[in-house]
Design brief:
The chain is mainly alpha-helical and about 400 residues long. About 45% of the residues lie in helices and about 5% in strands. It has helices at about 10-15, 45-50, 70-75, 85-95, 110-115, 150-155, 165-170, 175-180, 210-230, 235-260, 270-285, 295-315, 320-345, 350-365, 375-380; strands at about 10, 20, 20-25, 30-35, 80-85.
Length: about 400
């Protein structure tokens, strides 16, 4: 049980902490200071600020924003600073023969039982997050931090405080153990990046999302211009360019399913396991890492080169046609990478909220399905679509 020495706040005091410099929210009787969590929230800080100084019980159950599991409520204890006694709790305490069992919150065992009997026990704390946390849940990742040493001691997998690459290489993990653990996502320091190489190569493994358009769009623009100049009409150029954009969605699906999630055919040795970890496993292990959500340009150059050759092989009759298709595809890739980042870290319009929920389900419900990131189209075609809640039953957020 949390310490009974934590303060009890008035509702007025909670409501006053509604700014970005001091942002409190309540969940029933619990009060949380989520100021340091604002920038790490995958839905964006704006969503939390809409409820600053208020109760978040309803919004955490809203499927449009991404419904939260029971583990989310437990994980919030990381930010617990005290309690606020609502009317049901106060009424029970006033009518109790032993009000000191209830107030100050949290109640002791007898007080918790009395609150339960009076229907006032919802969200009143009875145990800590340490007793209940389950790292297979998405919402467990959005706290400020976790006990990294305790996690390593318990699961015997990777120590996030040490360079990860050589731990995977020297770990002697079986394929089954590795796949089980790498898909049990971990949080890390407010969306920061755990060490991968631990040496001069470390910066090469990190890429801010904005690097993708800044690096690739000039090449796309120049290549598109060359293709346009060599084609008989703008309409023909546009048709081939859009064809490339459409083909990218299939490539996106194929890479995600056939390369990044080749789990069934992954070699059961350290070469295969380490390659898998570098290519995609690290993203599922620390999915809120802000700097490993998009592909470093140096790596994508390697992946893009065969597709450049393929475009010129398939459209062999006209170099300009092949260039238009290739540039449309590269532009599609940049949209994919930026979308991937935004799905993890930004508050989005209603359509993208559904896409965000779909991608989160891929991470925390079923990583063997739901491979489309920018669209579910190819999941539907190939029978790997995740089943989503009925949209007609979703709650509209004001």
């Amino acid at each position: 049980m949390p310490s009974r020495t934590l303060p009890n706040f008035t509702t007025k005091e909670v409501a006053a902490n509604n700014k970005s410099k001091s942002c409190w929210v309540t969940l029933g009787s619990k009060v949380f200071d989520v100021t340091d969590f604002l920038e790490s929230h995958p839905g964006g800080s704006e969503l939390i600020m809409d409820y600053a100084g208020k109760d978040v019980s309803e919004i955490m159950q809203d499927e449009v924003q991404h419904i939260h599991s029971e583990n989310a409520y437990d994980a919030l204890d990381e930010f617990l600073i005290g309690f606020v006694a609502g009317d049901p709790v106060l009424k029970t305490a006033l009518e109790s023969d032993h009000p000191h069992d209830i107030l100050p919150l949290p109640p002791n065992k007898s007080g918790a039982q009395e609150l339960k009997e009076n229907g006032a026990a919802e969200h009143v704390p009875t145990k800590t997050a340490v007793e209940t946390i389950d790292m297979s849940s998405a919402e467990g990742l959005y706290r400020g931090d976790m006990d990294l040493k305790e996690d390593y001691r318990k699961h015997k997998f990777l120590n996030l405080e040490e360079p990860l690459l050589m731990q995977v290489w020297n770990g002697g993990f079986s394929k089954d153990f590795y796949l089980k653990e790498v898909h049990r996502a971990r949080p890390y320091k407010n969306g920061g990046s755990p060490p991968l190489f631990g040496n001069f190569l470390e910066p090469l493994s990190k890429t801010a999302w904005w690097v993708i358009p800044v690096f690739w769009w000039p090449f796309v623009t120049y290549g598109s211009w060359l293709a346009y100049c060599g084609m008989p009409s703008a309409w023909q150029f546009a048709a081939y360019w859009v064809t490339g954009l459409g083909l990218w969605t299939l490539v996106e699906y194929g890479l995600h399913r056939g390369l990044f999630h080749v789990d069934k055919y992954l070699p059961d040795n350290r070469v295969g396991i380490t390659g898998h970890f570098l290519l995609h496993g690290i993203h599922h292990y620390v999915p809120m890492d802000r700097y490993r959500l998009v592909m470093p340009p140096s790596l994508f150059v390697v992946l893009a080169t065969p597709f450049y050759k393929l475009a010129h092989t398939v459209f062999y009759w006209d170099w300009y046609v092949a260039m238009a298709v290739f540039c449309g595809g590269i532009f599609g890739y940049t949209l994919y990478d930026c979308t991937h980042y935004f799905l993890h870290h930004k508050q989005l319009p209603s359509f993208y909220r559904q896409l965000k929920s779909y991608h989160f389900d891929h991470h925390w419900k079923d990583h063997e399905n739901g491979f489309g990131v920018t669209s579910r189209f190819w999941d539907r075609v190939f029978g790997t679509e995740l089943v989503m809640p009925d949209l007609s039953k979703r709650v509209k957020v004001s």
